Amino acid sequence: MEEVIITQERSSIGIIPVHKKTLIALGLKKKGQSKKHKMTPQLKGMLRQVGYLLKVDKV
């Protein structure tokens, strides 16, 4: 399973509450924060939902 680094590039101010909860579930709270995750079907769905706020890099 490949790993990815997810970085929050845009602020979560003013986005819909469901997207804000998705960011928190990804472990991202502030702009510029990064987390490493394994790519799973659940993660792909989360990235599809809030992808406009994030930058995703393969490890």
Strand order in the largest sheet: 2-1-3
What is the H/E string? EHEHE
Overall number of strands: 3
Per DSSP, the total helix count is 2
- So what's the overall shape? globular
Average pLDDT figure: 96
**Structural class by sheet pairing and helices:** alpha+beta
Distance between the termini: 11 Å
What portion of the residues fall into strands of 2 or more residues? 25-35%
Using only C-alpha atoms, the radius of gyration works out to 11 Å
Percent of residues in helices: 25-40%
Low-confidence stretches: none
Structure overview:
- With about 60 residues, this protein is α+β, with helices and mostly antiparallel strands.
- The protein is about 35% helix and about 25% strand.
- It contains 2 helices and 3 strands.
- It has helices spanning about 15-25, 40-50, and strands at about 5-10, 35-40, 55-59.
- A 3-stranded antiparallel sheet has the order 2-1-3, covered by helices on one side.
- It is globular and about 35 Å long.
- The relative contact order is 0.37.
- The mean pLDDT is about 95.
Give the gist of this structure.
This protein has helices at residues 17-26, 41-50; strands spanning 3-8, 34-38, 54-58. With 59 residues, it is of the alpha+beta class.
